[in-house]
Structure formats: structure tokens, C-alpha cells
Write a structure and sequence with these properties.
The complex is a heterodimer of chains A (about 400) and B (about 350). Chain A has about 400 residues and is an all-alpha fold. Chain A has helices at about 5-40, 45, 50-55, 65-75, 80-95, 100-110, 120-125, 130-140, 145-150, 175-205, 205-220, 225-235, 240-250, 260-285, 290-300, 305-330, 335-340, 350-360, 360-390, and strands spanning about 155, 165. Chain A has two domains: about 45-140, no CATH class; about 175-390, MetI-like (MetI-like fold), CATH 1.10.3720. By secondary structure, chain B is of the alpha+beta class. Chain B has helices spanning about 45-50, 95-105, 110-120, 135-150, 165-185, 195-200, 220-225, 230-235; strands at about 5-15, 15-25, 30-35, 60-65, 65, 80, 155-160, 190, 205-210, 210-215, 240-250, 250-255, 260-265, 275-280, 285, 295-305, 310-315, 320-325, 335-340, 345-350. In chain B, helix 2 packs across helix 3 and helix 2 packs parallel to helix 4. The chains are: A mainly alpha (about 400), B alpha+beta (about 350). The complex binds adenosine-5'-triphosphate and magnesium ion. Chain A: Belongs to the binding-protein-dependent transport system permease family. CysTW subfamily.
Amino acid sequence: MSRPSIRDRAWAAALVAPLVLFLVLFFVWPLWTMVTASVVDDAVTKVLPRTAAAMAQWDGNDLPPPAVQTAFAEDLRSAEDQQALGEAVRRLNSAVSGFRTLLSRTVTAAREAADLASLDLAAIDRRWSDPRFWRAIRDAVPPYTDRNLLAALDLKRDASGNITAEDPGTAANRVIMLRTFVIAGTVTLVCALIGLPYAMLAASASGLVRALLLLAVLLPLWTSLLVRTAAWFILLQQEGLINDALMAIGLIDGPLPLIFNRLGVIIAMTHVLLPFMVLPIYSVLIAVPRNLMPAAASLGAGPLRAFWRVLLPLAMPGLMSGCLLVFMVAIGYYITPALVGGANDQMISSVIAFYALGTANWGMAGALGLILLAVTLLLYVVYGRLSRSPQLPGGA
Amino acid sequence: MGAFIAFKNVTKKFGALTVVDNLDLEIAKGEFVSLLGPSGSGKTTLLMMLAGFERPTSGEIFLDGKPITHLPPHRRQMGMVFQNYALFPHMTVAENVAFPLEMQRVPRAEIVRRVERALDMVRLGALKDRKPSQLSGGQQQRVALTRALVFEPDVILMDEPLGALDKQLREHMQLEIRDLHRRLGLTIVFVTHDQSEALTMSDRIAVFNAGKIEQIDTPQMVYDRPRTRFVAEFIGETNLVAGKVVDAGGERAVVRVGDAALSVCGNVQPGRDVSLSLRPERIRLGSTPAAANALPVTVADCIYHGDHMRLVLKSGSLELVARAERLAGDWPVGTEAVASFDPQDCTVLAS
Ligand SMILES: Nc1ncnc2c1ncn2[C@@H]1O[C@H](COP(=O)(O)OP(=O)(O)OP(=O)(O)O)[C@@H](O)[C@H]1O
Ligand SMILES: [Mg+2]
């Protein structure tokens, strides 16, 4: 073999270029945007660059020195971009209300003033003699913030900059995040309990039976998520098929509450995610030599012990990938809980959707997304470690 | 006499296909019996019924006098060695061998001791912490064998255990298994379609054909006194010669083949048409007419085989294959000669 020439290398690079371009455009870039959205907070800096620089001279007590006030007035006078100004006002107003009127009045005064150095802000508006407003500006000028990330975890910084818990009245994210993990964990467990025997059955069957079994799990994958969820809607409702059938055979007297609660969410999500459990286990099991179970039996192992000692350890890599896959997909679920869940079954994605679509708070949406991403990556690393340990076959 | 393993009228059908046909077979304790036959003759099926993985369609199987036909495999105390070994890939060699002992709930300390002793016996002690994938084919084979032996089962079943090994290793393992059989007094049922393997290893060989046992005998008897044409042709090489019985009495008969009257072994009625089985290496070739059992022949072909020559001989319309040692001289094509044999080396087969 000769070393590849530059021409060959160029060819190879050209061949992977579309892939790289695709990844950058649709994966790296959005991810980067999300990360930056959650930590960048430059609405105020952009409009008040001189103020931001001058703020270093102020210790935060009493009122800022005249140099800061002058820099501030200069910034306001030279603020041309109305939209940027509006955003800065919105940002400041969300910290201390009253900024909207305060700033518009001050901007007008700053534009009309002849000599900015002698301009007395407190005379324009009495609020400028209140350090609270100045402190809000000082807190808002650094271009990066951990405010969103902390808020995503129900934390905040108090007046002196220490991290404290959000007051319980407004704190909801931790509860929702915990709920997300509980629902995803339950769905993973149920999928494993159904998926493992199912994959074993499919792997031991042959011909038409195997094809039908696999088709039955794959079919949902080929149907739209919305359609599937809507179908559960019909099946699970009060006068739905399941309740009607259970009442018809006399098992229950009144209809069971199957929808708009946790049970409905778990049933529908399990159905949707089952293929992600069955397929990895199946692919591992069909590679297991057929005569291992007979061998175990001839060595004195009953069916249960043969399963426990031979088949389960061999199926473990598939089971682990299945669980990881289901859990990671499940924690991002949005439509299914929204349609068949109740108010107390909404997951973290619905909070993200609320921030992103409802209030256009991209910072919070990004921060919550980042936390979701961190959990997923963590799980992935743990899985990588586990699958490389010598206990599992295929990891050597 | 109380056979250790007994099949009584066992039939196995898969749908319309009869794979084992009303078969009787008895195996004594400590015996090494080979099941030999062409592909599809039902050897594996018979072994699977003995191990409990298949149920007979009809008939009964007995172990030590007790019917085991409906006993599940894990209660049968039979160690099985599969063709591709069936070692557990996620366990080490030692764990594989310990498996059957753990299933019998043998105390931990004793397991360790017995596994060690068993692995030392097959010289695998040094490899006990390896995974099966890190072993050679022969080593895997020995682990499979050890695993089947270690729990001291009543019977060891082997389904073409040496099929995947190369010739040299196969011959080595044949001797090793034979040696273990002798030393431990094991009862072994061994499936093979390699006749030389069956001949070297077995106490008795059961020759299968289409779900029936054609003959069950010691290796010598199966080779020297084949009972049927199928057995004579399946085991070794033979010349089949058609003739008519002209005289018979006791175990001897005189059969007319062409112009010659040959005296042979076998219990037949005079006047019947029969086949004679004559092994190539039992044909003596000479230049002077012998007194008895001689046929005048011409050498039609001579094929060099290293340690011996294969000669194709013609006598009228009859064609015989003979095997000549190198020392017995040269037989160029076209040589006129006389082929003769001893009466006990030629068997009459009912045709
Ligand atoms: N589970 C089964 N279902 C249907 N037919 C079967 C089954 N098992 C075996 N057979 C058929 O039974 C016949 C005998 O099979 P068996 O495996 O016993 O042969 P064998 O003597 O072991 O052959 P080989 O030397 O090739 O291993 C074959 O024709 C086979 O196709
Ligand atoms: Mg077979």
C-alpha cells in the first residue's frame, strides 16, 4: 500500500463534506445557539457599553459616582437602535419594574440636555436617587449570566451574590424534572419487562411467526406519533374500547380513569417506545448460539436457572442499550403527555415549549434544554463505562 | 441381562417423515457405542431423544430400568457435548466447568476442588481464567468435554464432537476420549459419520440407515462380517460380487461366480442368488494358479497411493479392486495374474 496522495485525500474530504456540512448546520449550530442563548445576556451591555465599563468604579453601596452617571447619560443619548433599546428596557424591567417609564423619560432628557456632565438625573426622575435601580443596571451589564441555569434548577442569586434556593411559591422546575425522570424511568422499566420476553420470543421463533412479531413492533414506528397518540386517546377514554370491554366482561362496574392521568401517559409512551427496547435486545439474542440453552439444560439447569445464568447475561448489552435509548428518548417527550396526560403529568419539554413558544424566553428554554442534554450525556458516559466492563460479553 | 440404556420400539416422526423407525437398542453400562450412518439417517434425532430434547412419537426409553421418556433434559443426568461445543461465551473456562456443579448445588469449596482436578486431567489448568473465545478449537473441545464429565453423569452423549477439528487434532482427541472412557469407566454414546473414528474408538458400532439400525456389532465384526450390503459398502471399501449358492452347510457355503466355485463364509440356502463382499486388502495376487478360491485376472489399471497401490483387476465381465503393498512387487497394466483369498475373508450378503 502506498501513502494516499493529496488528490486522494482531497477526494475523501470532498466525499464527507456533505455530511460534515449537514452536521454543522443542523446539529452543531443549533446546539451552540441553544447553549449561548442560555448564558449570554448582552441586551443591556450592547446599549450601555460605557456604563458597563464605568460600573467597575462603583462598589454597589449608596449611589454610583458621577462618572458612572455621566457615562450612562452618554449611552442613552447615543442609543440609536430603538429595537435594541427596547430589549434592554424589557430586560431591566423584568429585574425591577418601573424601568419602562423611567428610561423613556431619561432618554428624552439626555437627548435634549446641552451639557451631559452637569445633568442631574435625580432631578429628571426621583427614582434615580434610589440605589435599587442602579443596582439592577449593574447586575444586568455583564454579558454572561448564570441566572437562567440557576433558575432552571430553582436557584437564584440573592442581593449579595450568593446562590440560594428560589422561594417555594415560584419554584417548579425541580418538581417537574423529578417527575420527568420518574415517568421516563417507569416507562423504561415497563418497556424492559415487556420488551425482553417479546424479543426472546421473536428470536426463538422462525419464518412467518418471527416476521409477524417483528412487524408488530415495527408498525408503530412507521405511523405518525400524533396518530398513535390520538389512537390511545380513543382507546383509553371513559367510553373507550378498553373500559367498554372491561365492563362488558363484568370485571369492573364503572369506567376506570385511564386517560388524563399518569397511567395513560405511561401506557401511551410505553407503546411508542417499545420498538427501541425490543430491537436492540432482539439483535443481540439472534447472535446467541442456538444450542446454549439445550447445553444448559443437559448440564442440569432448569428453564428458569438457564435463563438467569445464560440467556439474561448474554442479552444484557441489548437490554442496556434498549433501556438507555428508551430513557433518553422518554425524558424529551412532549406531545404524548400533552395529549393524554393531566396537568400533573407534564414533563420538562412542556416547560421548555412554554418558555420558547409562550414567552419567547430563549434563555430559560436554552438552560432547561442544556440540563436535559447534560443528563443524557451523563447517562451515555455511564453506559459506555458499563459496556466496557469485562462482565459483559462483546465489550472486550 | 438388564441393559443400562434401552430403546424399545422407538419411532420418531416429523410430520409425515419417519426419522427413527421402530428402533430397539440396548447399551450396557461402561460401553462406548458409536452411532454411524449417512447424513439424515436419524443419528442426531436418536441422541436428542436420549438427552430429552425430543419426544419419541411412540415407544419407550429406559435408563437403568426406569422409563425416562417423559423426563425433562435437566433431570436426566446426561452430559452432552455438542458439535460446536456450546460453551457459555460470558463465562471463563473454570466457570463453564463449574456450571453443572452449581446446578447440583455442590458446596463452593468442593466445586473449586473438582473443577481444578477435572481441568488438570485434560491439561487445561493453566487456561482456567480465559474466555472460550480465547481458546483454540481443540482446547474448546476439551473444555466442553470436561464440562460434560465433571458432574459425573450416568451417560455422556456426543454429537460429532470432533467434526470441526483438523485431522491431526481429531486423531489426538479420539485417543484422549478413548483413554478417558477406559480410565473413568464412562458410558458413552457417540454420533459420527466418520467410519474410521467409529472403528478406532468404539466397543460397538450401530450402523444407521434411514432410521433403522442395519447392524450393531464390534468394529471387527462390522468390518469383517457386514450383515447387509449397505453396511459392507458404507464401512470401508469392498468388492461386491454377484453369484449363486451351489452348496451350503453350517457357516460355510460354495458360491459359483462365472466359471469359478468360491468357498466363502455365511449361512445361506443353496440355490439362492447372493452378493459376496470381498475387501480389497484381502485379495492376494500371485502369478501361479492357487488351488482354491482363485480367479484368473488381468491388471487393468494400477494407481499409485504412496504406501500402497490400488489395482483394478478384470476377470471376464467382473471387475475387482485390490490393494497391493509396495513390497509385493510391481503389477504393470496388462499383467496376467491369479487373485485368491481365504474363505473367512469373504462374506455372503443376502441380496
Ligand atoms: N426438528 C425437525 N423438524 C423436521 N425435520 C427434522 C427435524 N430434525 C431433523 N429432521 C429431519 O430428520 C432427518 C434426520 O435428521 P438427523 O439430524 O437425525 O440426521 P443425522 O443422522 O444426525 O444426520 P447428520 O449426519 O447430517 O447430522 C433429516 O431428514 C432431517 O431433515
Ligand atoms: Mg446429526
